[in-house]
Structure formats: structure tokens, C-alpha cells
Amino acid sequence: IDAELLMAYKDNTPLDLTQREYELLKFLASNPGKVFSREALMENVWNYEGYVGDVRAVDVAVRRLREKVEDDPSDPRVIQTVWGIGYRFEPEGREG
Fold first, then answer.
1. Where are the alpha helices (DSSP H) in the chain?
2. Residue 33 half-sphere exposure, CB side, CA atoms within 13 Å?
């Protein structure tokens, strides 16, 4: 992730990310291994303070981001789901 250029790369190839996807990736990657609830992601990435309501936008953004960063989006290794809690970033694709 190149914060100065607002770009992210996979295998030295620039990723075609939306601004929201970039912000989500940058936020998760800056806190490797830490699990964030959908509500926490809405607050920190979408800037919706004290957000309550439909958080499916997070799931959609994560799914789209996985399609761009994962080798196999159906078996994510980098952006992992922690069932019942939320999502976490594992830079080495480790199993949690």
C-alpha cells in the first residue's frame, strides 16, 4: 500500500480499487490481526459515528475487495471473516 500515491499493489501490479476499497484495505492492513466488527468498520472507514442500521455495505465492500486482492476470493487468506464478529487482515495469509 502506497499511502502517498493512494495506491495498492498485488505482486507489484497496481490494483484498480475504488476510494472506499482503498480506505478499507488501508485501515485493515494498518491493524494486522485485529478483528473489527462491521459497525467499527462503518465508523472508521465510512466515518459514520455511532452507526446503527444496515451494515451490509461492509460485506459488499469486503467481497469486492477480496475479488481484487485474494488469489481465491472464495477461500480468502488475507481478508478473513471471523464468524459472528467481523473481519481481520492477515498480511501473510495465515489461518487464524
1. 19-29, 38-44, 56-69
2. 2
- Cell 455511532 locates to 50
Is the model's pTM score more than 0.70?
A: yes
Single-letter amino acid, residue 19: Q
Residue-wise pLDDT tens for the chain (96 aa)?
A: 878 778 888 888 889 999 999 999 999 999 999 999 999 999 999 887 765 566 788 999 999 999 999 999 999 999 999 999 999 999 875 554
Surface-to-core class of residue 35, CB atoms within 10 Å of its CB (0-12 exposed, 13-18 middle, 19+ buried): middle
End-to-end CA distance of the chain: 22
Q: In what order do the strands lie in the sheet with 86-89?
A: 36-37, 86-89, 79-82
- Which residue, chain included where needed, has cell 481481520? 88
Contact 96, 50 (CB under 8 A): no
> Amino acid identity, residue 4?
E
